[in-house]
Amino acid sequence: MSQLVDLNLSEKVAVITLQNGKVNAISHALLDELNAALDKVEEAGVVLVIKGQAGMFSAGYDLATMKESPEAAKKLVQRGSSLTLRLLAFPTPVIAACTGHAVAKGAFILLASDYRLGVDGDFKIGLNEVAIGMTMHHAGIELAKGRLAPVYFNRSVLCAEMYSPEHAVDAGFLDRIVPAEAMDVAIEQIVNFMSQLNMKAHHQTKLKARKPLLESLANAIELDA
Q1: Nearest C-alpha neighbor of 188 from the set 137, 107, 117, 125
Q2: What is the pTM of this model?
Q3: What is the mean pLDDT of the chain?
């Protein structure tokens, strides 16, 4: 059985790489492995980096499951929303290394991370749910409302506008972009800075700063259920 998530754990950083096929589909199996990896990162108490494969961070939920039945789709989305909630309240800094396209749930993982580093290139980032006939779930709306630049909320959620990495910075999906060849060095620099933080102070401040969003997201997950 192939691994869908690779965990590389060292003294000051844990790198989780999503590796589920060409589009890094978010499936039940991937969520199982990802949550197990997050358990180990929490225990280690180190900075977390989540990255994708070259050219693809993630294109979102596994389509086979989403098309199986409304109940199957609902269950997968609920689990994905719980992951979002976990990342938003994660006890150590969460860095998303967006290695390419980030669509739907892939973009939501960016919105749930503390620092989002993207690779420059001909990539698309955004929430395409409305464009493909899906009504946005309450949890997705709350997360987008809490993390996107307000002027981009309607364009992203209601109009399913997709952005280049450069414009994704303006919208609030990314914090910074670098050329592909500079990605590894940039990640190392951010990790070095983040690892010097007092992790207890970081976590407590995160929970205070995000309290309204965490509460509204938890309520939205219940509403979606």
Answers
A1: 117
A2: 0.96
A3: 96
